[in-house]
Amino acid sequence: MLKGVLLACAGFGVYLILIVILFRAARPERRFRFMSRLHLAMDGALVAAYLVTPPDLWIIPAMLPRAGWLIDLVNALVIHTFLYMGWSMLYFLLDRGFSARILVEIYSAPVGLSEAEVAAVYAPDAVVGRRLSEMVDIGRLVRRGERFQATRRARLEGRMFAFLKGFFHLGPGG
Amino acid sequence: MRGLLAGALTFSIYLAAQIGLFHMVAIRRKLSVMLGLWVGGLAVYVGLFALLPADAVYLPRALAAPSDAVTWLSGAFVYWSLFSGYYQFFNMADNSVGVRSLIELCRGPEDGMALAELKRVYPYDAMLGRRMERLVEAGFLERAGGRYRCAPKGAAAARMVGGLKAFLRLGPGG
Asked: How far apart are CA B134 and CA B43, in angstroms?
């Protein structure tokens, strides 16, 4: 199992380095789509690396028991994908985190901010407008003039989330 | 396979317990309770891993892995990752601005809603106030009169988030 685990960790390390370089140099517009595609490409690279490298990876002691190649490779892909998911969560926190943005705005103000001042520097139209535009981009909403209309799929998802909020007693939330 | 199976089975048991508990009781400190349940689930993982048969007993060679520390840790990592992925989904259902907007749009008129109409049913004051209250409760912000300032914990978080946003050139975000 160690070979797959080491390759998955190394692959994810390379992925992070590439993300940092490309985000800083190329500043892609649709970042999450870019991240997902790069992850898929790295999955392919991981499989290729697994197939062309020796079972001991030149560093694993021979005395350690070996796993079957298929479970080792599947385990490597699972770990690689979960590491990517963890990174995606951090990315969304940084990029979309509402509370994180509030903290940064208050921290940047020398004497702090009142709620009205936070609302002034971090305007509601920007917060909701960005999310609505993204839902238009991914086909959940249709924009007709000033109005946003939910597609059939979005209505299904809306009902599912409304059910979950009710089922778990979450309140209206948001 | 033993680790993956133990991790996936433990997460299924965790999920059933979390769903049952959150459905029956309205819980305020959701993350703490979910983390507590996850930690409790570790004992289940240890037990399940011990109870499951070794791969070599029933699986072909390509799918069999030794029941060593690497397999055990891989399974525990799978259990953790399934939990954190689920928490992300749960948190989205609970707090996401996009999800709440979608629900309100689905409840609104057939021809959709303009941003101004959406703001009437999903007021920005509530969206912002709820988060600032939570940041105060969690010790990230301090309130003096009508103003908010970063507590030391909040300042450290704001520096880290702000630094990472700048490093990755993500823009102000939020």
From this structure: 31
Minimum distance, in Å, between the CA of residue A104 and any CA atom of chain B: 5
Q: How far apart are CA A165 and CA B100, in angstroms?
A: 10
The pTM of the full predicted model, rounded to 2 decimals, is 0.84
B146 three-class SS: coil
Assembly ipTM: 0.81
* Mean pLDDT, residues A19-39: 91
Q: Are A56 and A3 in contact (CB under 8 A)?
A: yes
Which chain A residues have a beta carbon less than 8 Å from that of B93? 161, 164-165, 168, 170, 173
**Distance in angstroms (rounded) separating the CA atoms of residues B107 and B27:** 26
Torsion on CA atoms A36, A33, A158, B24, rounded to nearest 10: 30
Instruction: For A101-125, write each residue's pLDDT tens digit.
Output: 999 999 998 888 998 898 888 887 7
CB-based contact B99 A125, cutoff 8 Å = no
Q: How many residues does chain A have?
A: 174
